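Quick look at the format.
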Amino acid sequence: MAKDDGSLNINRAICNAAGDAERVEMSAPADSSRMMQAIFLKDHVKRLIDIQPSYIPRPTFESYLSSLREKKRPLPREPLLHVKITHTAINHVDLLYAHGVHQNNKSGLFVPPFTLGLEFSGIVSDVYNPQNQACHFRPGDKIWGGSIGTHAEELVIPASAVHRLPSPLWSLHDVAAIGAGTIPVSYGALTTIAGLKAGEVILVHAAAGGLGVYAVQIARALGAKVIGTVGSQHKMAVVEELLRDPQTGRIPKGEGVINYSKDGWEKEVVALCKQTGKDGVDVVYDTVGLVLKSIRCTTFNGRVVVAGFAGRTGTGAEAVEELEKIAVNRILLKQIKLLGYRFGETSRRLPHETVKMWQGLDEMLSKEPRVIKPVVYQTYKGLNHANEAMEALHKRQVFGKAIVEVCDEEEAMRQVLQRSKQASTTFSARL
């Protein structure tokens, strides 16, 4: 997903380009061919359950480019794709954006009106390539990617921001479940930043969450041992199932799942480590905000990778818990390497690292039999149920990913092929 400077600015413009719609209709419009449904917010919300899809103009290459010109943003230096979206995934960041409490709300990137959504899978319906550059995508190609404004029926996006399905074994529903803005975060954190190696032990916090369920599987695929933590009892079974040996049905020695909402969970982690002769974990993957306690069960010269603060930050509907403060002597005494990982910023500043990361991830996802299993809490049929998925995530009921099926895959392909046939007929008539 590496992008040049032009495409970076294009991606930053997508959400506000969607906001250029002057007219938003709540009921079905008379001319539905020019309108589509989207989770389009005219303002930030107080209650997620009140969010409903609206009708906004369908995106076109012309409207997309016009919006960039109006905002004096760079025009694309690469092909653009018009995509029929089949699936979109709900992320914790969606809740923050909807309530207006994310740093990107304050920076001006997500200023109402805008369309929610960060991940999608779908089918290419058209390609815009005025400079005849090399483009490996054609109408009918199945893809997945990350962008702004994906909770919609259609999307215009730079070709560099999408990927083909890893192999024929993967469906559009499957790749939506691993998420182009989810599994790459965990893969990059564990490989590029932590340098996790076979034989090491990793502690994965929020192991049943969107990032966590894939961090667990990536670590196992790399040959590491995994100790996962969860915040509630009902999520333990999800992680235990991922850890079970497929032949014996048992969780291997030195691995397990611990509830971090209970006092003293650090001692349980150390006890599991001792089963394999270690005095602590080699790596911690923290997306919750548990650095201080994690250091207590980290071995000397261990690494702690911070990739989020989901357990510390509210979503606007409740008070925000203060971020933890750490006495630096704790880091010194164990010679801990405290590392941060911000996936989006890495893509912008170090695109070559992101390219290398995707190469490694694609190789892992392409293995047969599959070493990564999609973990789906529930699939919601239609954008009108996206609010239910967001509410479930807010209440911390979701494990893995909550998916919204925007359009049935077969129906989406039928529409794309029909549109392509009509376009070809019109072109022939002009000749």
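Next, a different chain entirely:
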Amino acid sequence: MVNEAKQILSNFVSNIPPIVIGPDKVDYIAEHIHDIPNEHRLLLLQLLNYILETMVERQASDIELGGFGAQNYVWFRIFGRKERAVDMPQFTEDEASTLIISFLNNNQIKFLLENRNLDFSYTFFYKKINKNLRFRCDAYFDLDSLTLNMRAIQATIRPLESLEFHPFAVKTMSHNYIKFGLSLVTGITGSGKSTTLDAIIDYHNDFDPCHIVIIASPIEFVHHSRKSIIKHREVGRDVLSFKEGVVQSLRQDPDIIVIGEMRDPETILAALEVTDTGHKVFSTLHTSSAVESIDRIIAEVNPTEQERVRNRLADVLISVVSQKLVPSLDGKRVLAKEVLIVTPSVKAAIKNNNTSEIYMMINQGSQQGMITMEQDLLRLYTEKKISKENAVAYANNKTRILQLLKA
């Protein structure tokens, strides 16, 4: 199958006229992709699925395919390390562009060519484990040719207990304990934010008879309603934007609204508004500490709005979890996290624009379920899960971690 599919790609690209160069090549491939007979396109799909099966077998989190940077190789990220898979099929830039376009629908192709980027999800049935596998995908351009990142979405959810939150931190995130308010899960790309959010949703799904609306780009893990009824709305497919999804959700009788990412001022303001109306909201941000998350939200909006947003955020923010995946001594990765619970003192610090005081409040707030990133890295080091070097490397506050390690 692999050789046959490779031959189909090779034959197709050999027919691209020599006069078609640069960015016109991808346009040409998109225009002529339907010249490939359906039975041949099915083989191309099987080739892609074979690569993804191999990815899952090797416990890789991500795959890179196509574009100048790939240098004809397929690349896997395995336990944090991104390396070329030398035993996998190789693809020229044109072959990879053809393979990528071959499994997109017409609307997706049109959107990709217009916007030079496409976020979407992909699912296929993996017979070996008798399950559907889902992937979060991003197709984009790299020096005029198409490249694709695909991230494996876990087929099972980690239970919330396994993330080792303090019981009071779990309480604040529980809809049963606090019916409204904003809880954030933050971290850089690939730090496991979606995994934590899914664990929180699954936790509610076990006992809470409520309505959960998830707005994401794309939808990753698909939850099956048990105790809760759960609706999934993918941006670009089921709803036009995060902001639209948030505003529309108010008419959908939700109890919990999950916003995949607060990526622009409009979404931030909509999230604060919907929280103000008495809903429980969970969302994510690309920040590496709790204090930075608060500062980022305020800085994202127009300066004339900042005072109002600061006061609103202080009133609705319940908790912030900032997390990182740190290389562990067994060659895998382990979760390190900072947890902020918004106490009256934290609320006052946000309102008075004294966010620099919050780190010390987290540092001294262990009884309320708080922990700094440095305290959690020290815990992982003393439990012999991570090395001293990685405890220092992944700390936000290098001076503080060095003090803790000396103590």
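Residues 12 and 35 are 9 Å apart (CA to CA).

See the schema section for token definitions.
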